[in-house]
Amino acid sequence: QVQLVESGGGLVQPGGSLRLSCAASGFTLAYYAIGWFRQAPGQEREGVLCISSSDGITYYADSVKGRFTISRDKAKNTVYLQMNSLKPEDTAVYYCATGLISRCPYGSSGYTYWGQGTQVTVSS
Known about the structure:
This protein is mostly beta strands. It is built from no helices and 11 strands. It is globular, with a radius of gyration of 13 Å.
Protein backbone atom coordinates (compact mmCIF):
# COMPACT_ATOMS: atom_id res chain seq x y z
CA GLN A 1 0.00 0.00 0.00
CA VAL A 2 1.47 3.30 -1.12
CA GLN A 3 1.62 5.81 1.69
CA LEU A 4 3.23 9.23 2.13
CA VAL A 5 3.52 10.92 5.51
CA GLU A 6 4.64 14.53 5.88
CA SER A 7 6.15 15.98 9.04
CA GLY A 8 8.19 18.94 10.19
CA GLY A 9 5.68 21.71 9.88
CA GLY A 10 5.19 24.37 12.52
CA LEU A 11 5.27 28.04 13.37
CA VAL A 12 8.31 30.02 12.26
CA GLN A 13 9.15 33.71 12.14
CA PRO A 14 9.66 35.49 8.82
CA GLY A 15 13.17 34.89 7.59
CA GLY A 16 13.39 31.57 9.38
CA SER A 17 13.82 28.04 8.07
CA LEU A 18 12.02 24.73 8.25
CA ARG A 19 12.71 21.31 6.83
CA LEU A 20 9.74 19.18 5.91
CA SER A 21 10.00 15.42 5.55
CA CYS A 22 8.00 13.10 3.33
CA ALA A 23 8.38 9.48 4.42
CA ALA A 24 7.28 6.88 1.92
CA SER A 25 6.09 3.32 2.46
CA GLY A 26 4.79 0.67 0.11
CA PHE A 27 7.18 1.63 -2.68
CA THR A 28 10.83 2.51 -3.22
CA LEU A 29 10.95 6.27 -3.33
CA ALA A 30 14.29 6.37 -5.18
CA TYR A 31 12.70 5.12 -8.40
CA TYR A 32 10.02 7.81 -8.68
CA ALA A 33 9.49 11.53 -8.83
CA ILE A 34 8.20 13.18 -5.67
CA GLY A 35 6.53 16.56 -5.66
CA TRP A 36 5.66 19.11 -3.01
CA PHE A 37 2.48 21.16 -3.15
CA ARG A 38 0.88 23.68 -0.84
CA GLN A 39 -2.56 25.09 -0.22
CA ALA A 40 -3.27 28.29 1.66
CA PRO A 41 -6.70 29.01 3.15
CA GLY A 42 -9.16 30.04 0.47
CA GLN A 43 -6.68 29.39 -2.33
CA GLU A 44 -6.16 26.64 -4.84
CA ARG A 45 -3.46 24.04 -4.36
CA GLU A 46 -0.15 25.22 -5.82
CA GLY A 47 2.80 23.19 -7.00
CA VAL A 48 6.07 24.03 -5.28
CA LEU A 49 8.78 21.79 -6.70
CA CYS A 50 9.57 18.21 -7.63
CA ILE A 51 12.54 15.86 -7.66
CA SER A 52 12.77 13.23 -10.38
CA SER A 53 14.19 9.74 -9.99
CA SER A 54 17.47 11.03 -11.43
CA ASP A 55 17.44 13.87 -8.86
CA GLY A 56 16.54 16.52 -11.38
CA ILE A 57 14.65 19.39 -9.77
CA THR A 58 11.63 21.08 -11.31
CA TYR A 59 10.32 24.28 -9.79
CA TYR A 60 6.58 24.73 -10.15
CA ALA A 61 6.55 28.05 -8.29
CA ASP A 62 8.94 30.85 -9.22
CA SER A 63 8.35 32.43 -5.83
CA VAL A 64 10.39 29.74 -4.06
CA LYS A 65 13.42 29.72 -6.34
CA GLY A 66 16.56 30.52 -4.38
CA ARG A 67 14.78 29.81 -1.08
CA PHE A 68 13.46 26.23 -1.24
CA THR A 69 15.25 23.09 -2.24
CA ILE A 70 14.44 19.41 -2.32
CA SER A 71 16.56 16.37 -1.61
CA ARG A 72 16.21 12.64 -1.21
CA ASP A 73 17.59 10.15 1.32
CA LYS A 74 17.31 6.79 -0.38
CA ALA A 75 18.33 4.84 2.72
CA LYS A 76 15.48 6.40 4.71
CA ASN A 77 13.02 6.33 1.80
CA THR A 78 12.38 9.98 2.55
CA VAL A 79 12.30 13.24 0.60
CA TYR A 80 13.00 16.57 2.27
CA LEU A 81 11.84 20.09 1.49
CA GLN A 82 14.27 22.63 2.89
CA MET A 83 12.65 26.03 3.18
CA ASN A 84 14.78 29.08 3.91
CA SER A 85 14.04 32.80 4.11
CA LEU A 86 10.41 32.03 4.81
CA LYS A 87 7.79 34.68 4.19
CA PRO A 88 4.25 35.06 5.54
CA GLU A 89 2.94 34.21 2.07
CA ASP A 90 4.52 30.76 2.41
CA THR A 91 1.93 29.93 5.06
CA ALA A 92 0.00 26.90 3.88
CA VAL A 93 -0.59 23.20 4.33
CA TYR A 94 2.22 21.42 2.51
CA TYR A 95 1.68 18.07 0.82
CA CYS A 96 4.01 15.60 -0.86
CA ALA A 97 2.79 13.44 -3.68
CA THR A 98 3.86 10.91 -6.30
CA GLY A 99 2.49 9.61 -9.56
CA LEU A 100 4.80 6.57 -9.46
CA ILE A 101 6.60 7.73 -12.58
CA SER A 102 10.25 8.63 -12.89
CA ARG A 103 9.93 12.15 -14.31
CA CYS A 104 8.27 15.14 -12.70
CA PRO A 105 4.72 15.52 -13.96
CA TYR A 106 3.69 18.71 -15.69
CA GLY A 107 1.10 19.50 -13.02
CA SER A 108 -0.90 18.14 -10.12
CA SER A 109 -2.98 15.92 -12.38
CA GLY A 110 0.09 13.74 -12.83
CA TYR A 111 0.13 12.82 -9.17
CA THR A 112 -1.87 9.91 -7.82
CA TYR A 113 -0.88 9.46 -4.20
CA TRP A 114 -0.91 12.25 -1.65
CA GLY A 115 0.07 12.63 1.95
CA GLN A 116 -2.17 14.13 4.61
CA GLY A 117 -0.27 17.42 4.75
CA THR A 118 1.62 19.38 7.37
CA GLN A 119 0.86 22.95 8.41
CA VAL A 120 3.48 25.66 7.96
CA THR A 121 2.75 29.05 9.48
CA VAL A 122 5.10 31.97 8.98
CA SER A 123 4.30 34.76 11.36
CA SER A 124 5.90 37.09 13.87
